[in-house]
Amino acid sequence: DSYFFLEYQEIPGLFHGTGDIFSAVLIGHTMNGTPLKQSTRRAMDVVRAMIDCNRDIDDNMCGIFIERCLDLVRTI
User: Fold this and answer.
1) Angle, to 10 degrees, between the axis of helix 36-53 and the axis of helix 18-31?
2) Phi, psi (rounded to 5 degrees) for 64
3) What is the gyration radius of the CA atoms in the chain, in angstroms?
4) Mean pLDDT throughout 8-30?
5) What is the model's pLDDT at position 76?
6) Which tens digit of pLDDT belongs to each residue from 24-74?
7) Cβ neighbours of 71 (radius 10 Å)
């Protein structure tokens, strides 16, 4: 019976794997008892951080290299 909207800034480009990352973070936080809105915000923040961490990759068809960002993600 309710809904929410979270502001975001679109990042131009194509980043393979971000939907899978978003889903994993969202489900993980939700299953740990975090409310849906807060889980969604965290998932959005993780995806943004991972995109920022991988901006220097020349071949964007390889997807997001999660390993490069693990220390960063633990802080979000």
Assistant:
1) 140
2) -85, 130
3) 13
4) 92
5) 62
6) 999 999 999 999 999 999 999 999 999 988 888 777 677 888 888 888 766
7) 8
Gap between the Cα atoms of 47 and 71, Å rounded = 14
- CA end-to-end span of the chain: 29
Angstrom CA distances, 50 to 1, 3, 4, 8, 40, stand at: 33, 27, 24, 15, 15
Stated pTM of the model: 0.84
pLDDT for residue 12: 85
Provide DSSP, the chain. Answer: ------------S--TTHHHHHHHHHHHHHHTT--HHHHHHHHHHHHHHHHHHTTT-S-GGG---GGGGHHHHTT-
